Structure formats: C-alpha cells, structure tokens
Amino acid sequence: MFEDKTYKRCACKGPLVDKKGDPVLNQDGTPKIGYLEKRCPLLKRRDHGSWYYSIELPPGPGGKRQHPKKGGFRTQKDAAAACKEVWDLAQGGVQVKSKETVAEYLRRWFTKRVDLKRSTRKGYQDHIERVFIPALGHLKMRDLRTRHIQGMFEAIWADNKTHQDHREAAEAARAAERAAHKAWRDCKGRPRPPELRQNWNAARAELRQARAKPRHITGPGTQKKMNDTLSAALEDAVTEKLISENWAKSVVLPKYVRPKPLVWTDERVARWQVTGEKPGPVMVWTPEQTGAFLDAVAEHRLYPMFHLMVFRGLRRGEVAGLPWSETNLTIGTVHVSEQLVAASYEVWEDTPKSESGARTITLDEQTHDLLRLWRKRQQTEREEWDRAYEEWRQRQREHPQPETDNTAVTQPWSDTGLVFTWEDGRAYHPEYLSQVFERLIKKLHLPPVRLHDLRHCAATLSLAAGIHMKKIQALLGHSSYSLTADTYTSVLPQFEKAEAEAPVALVPRARNQRESHEEPEPPDGESVEPEVPSNEPGETAA
C-alpha cells in the first residue's frame, strides 16, 4: 500500500545533538558542528530549505532493501507527487533505483547489437557518440523524458541556422574572391597595380576564414534517422524496465518527405544550363538522354557495367561486388547476393541492403552479349598480365637488381573472382566508380545524375514500358511494394501526356463531332477559290 513520507531539510550547519537532545561533543569537549538538516530551527520559515520524499519499496533482487529518496522540491505537494510517481513506476516493474546513465546504457545497448550490418553500426555509433551522449549522456535513465530529447533536437536546429549563415558567408566570400582574382587577371597594364594583388590576397584570406567555420546542415532525413536510432535503444530500455515508456516516440521533428525521382525535361535542362542548379536531389534521364550517354561511352572500359545498371537496376556496390560464380552466361542471369560497401573510403563485403535485396535478375539480350564479351576481354587481360609477370620474374632471376621500368608487372594477377575488375584483377572501389561516372557526364555536358540514379532510370524505363510495379519491386530488390510505388509514382513525360489524353477521348462531345465534319477554314485575309477543271489536257486553269 502506498504511503508517502515527505519532510523538509536544509543545508545549514550548527551544533549537533543526539536523539535524546544532548549536544554532541568532539574529543576535546567542544561542540561538534555539522549539518542540521531536519533539526534546523529556521525550517518553520516558508522560504527556508526544500522538501524531500522517502519511500519504502518491496525488496529488490536478493531481498535487498529499496528505500529511494529525493529532495530539492519547492513545496510538499510537489514532493508527494514525485513520490507517488516513483511508487507507480516501481509497481510497473521499472528499476527506480537504477543509477545507470544514458551514456552507460547506450554504449551497453550498442555493444549487444551484433545483429546490425556493419554500415548500420557505423551510423548508430556516430549518432550515439557525436549527438546523444554529449546532449543526454549525463542524465540517469530513470530521469530521461521527452523534453530532454526535444531539447537536443532544438539545439540541432539552432546549429543548423548558424551553419546556414556560415554557408551564405562562405558563398559571399567565394564570390568576392573570384571578383578580386578576375580584376587582377584581366588588368591590361604591366606591371599590374600592387593593390589588385593585395585585394585578391585579402579576399583569399577571408574565404579561408569563412570556410573554416562549420557549415554542415543536419537535414530532416538525418534527424529522423537519429530519432529512429534513439527510439530503437529506448524500446529495449522499456523491455528491461529501465524506463516506463519510449520517450523518443513523442518527439516532434520537421516533416521529412522522401525525395522522388524527377525527369530531366527540356524545360528543366534549360533552367539548369542557366543556373547550374538541379531541380531535385534525385534526377532521372529521359530515354533520349540515356541513349546519348550509352552511345558516348560505348568504347569506355566500364560500358558493360553502365549498361547493366541502366537496364537491370543494380546498385553501385552490387555491380562492384558481383562475382562470376553468381553470373550464369548460359541462360543469362545474375544472382545478387553480396555487395561492396564503402564508408570513409574503407571497403568491405556485405549482403544487399534488405532481405529481398538478394535476387536473381534475368539479363536482356544486349547486356547478356556484353557480359560474354567482357568475360573474354578479362580472360585475355589475365593471360597478358600473367605472361608479363612471368617475364619480370625471369628477368629478376637472371639479373637480380632493382627494376627501373615503372610499367613492369611486379605483382601476379589478383584472382578476386569478380566480374568488373581492373586489368590486374583487383576490385573497383565503389567510390571510384562514382567519380568516373561524374567525370564522364561533365565531359559529355549531360544533365547531372548520380551513379545511383541509373538505378532509378532502370525503374522508370521499366514502368514506362508497361512492366507491373510488383515486377519492378523484384527487379530492384525493394523490401516492400509500397516503397517502390511511393518512389516511382511519376513516369516519363510522353507517357504522362498519353495518360492525360485518354480520359478526354472517352467522353463524346457534340462540338468535336461538328468540327470533324466541317472543312478547315482558310487563314485570315485569304480566300479559297474552287478549282475549275481544264477543257484541254495538260492545261492549267487561270
């Protein structure tokens, strides 16, 4: 049965007395001075001291007594309410005596999450060490509330505003530096006036200072990921009875809308050519733009890989980690079961992003032929590499001295078993593939898309070709149908036009019928005379 015990105490010091009221003395007979606590005569005053609660709970593990107490309340009513809250939590099984802090719990929780992918663990660890622990780590788990988490995100929003100001200042400093450099470069006189160089140097110094300030913006998508990470940790804390509820679920964040692919229409391309700005973070080429890219890179070493991504929708890491053992050139299929993942330029092998990411994809005839040719090319490169390596080893045996030829093959061919490799068999770094692709589209002056957006091109082309959304989900390896449908709700403009005209054509209109029977009217200011047949063969009427 609940029975609260509240009392008032202070931090005043004075002569101490024992339970009988007799003074407590030191060894030399002088009165012992200490905290008076509940015995302070000034506690009768309303503004002196603070209220505490003390409560007896059922014994804990091993029969250990549980007697929580807490003070610092302004009124007796506040102390009694807090005491009742602790009692209710204890009755619900919450460990109200636990002293584990948020920092201690989050690190303990992260250690046991061995089920996470390596890339996911890196993201969780970053959120915990860089964001959660600095903001919340000092709190005890039993004291954590939604207001603390909300305050953490409010601090992030304040930092975002400051960082945005830094961005704008850096852009202004960059414009000033370019103007000062242009003035110095375009000066016709020789020698140039020294003040022009001084102005340029000063502008460069200001630009360096502006760029040194933090400019990273934590967007709504990243904030949602952070809260999802914290929510997952607190959900386990609820299970462990460290807290009564998942406080992260009540946090209010900026609305996040998953970006949908936009097609590079002529109007958007024209605007991009003027401003250099992309209409959205995820852009997709039209069939004509896709064809122009493939035609332009047909002689490039990585053309088979680009072709595979454009039409079959593999991810960057999936093509980089695709092994020949999972490629069936007899029937024309590839089984996607692993990928190369890169973070901070570190690379490791991992499974696809979702459980449905492991999938078998049927190749189109063109891609099938390209992979056959690529296989022959890779085998030829291996033979040439092995031959050059053996020649180098022979030279070393006959004349053991440092090799002066930097082009000499001094390492054997790397048998990685991968489909797309360097000439020596080494795997491509996924980030390198993105860099090559970016350089190519800049060189070709094509509207910018990311290498990952070739995957969106594959989905959009398949959708426009009439392939069912469920088939596209399987092609891309999405975890759910709704993810595919929500991402690819728009198709290419020419197909959208046909869909817009189809309902109009179904409605019969009297005006349309009349117009179909009427002869076309001549242009304004002109008249059409009836043609008079000639009486003589070969004669033209006047």
UniProtKB/TrEMBL annotation:
Renumbered residue ranges of the record's region Disordered: 502-542
Residue stretches making up the Tyr recombinase domain: 280-501
Compositionally skewed regions (Low complexity) per UniProt: 530-542
UniProt keyword Ion transport, yes or no: no
Annotated transmembrane regions: none
Swiss-Prot/TrEMBL keywords: DNA integration, DNA recombination, DNA-binding
Gene3D superfamilies: 1.10.150.130, Intergrase catalytic core
Keyword DNA-binding attributed: yes
SUPFAM superfamilies in the cross-refs: DNA breaking-rejoining enzymes (SSF56349)
Stated family: Belongs to the 'phage' integrase family.
Protein name according to UniProt: Tyrosine-type recombinase/integrase
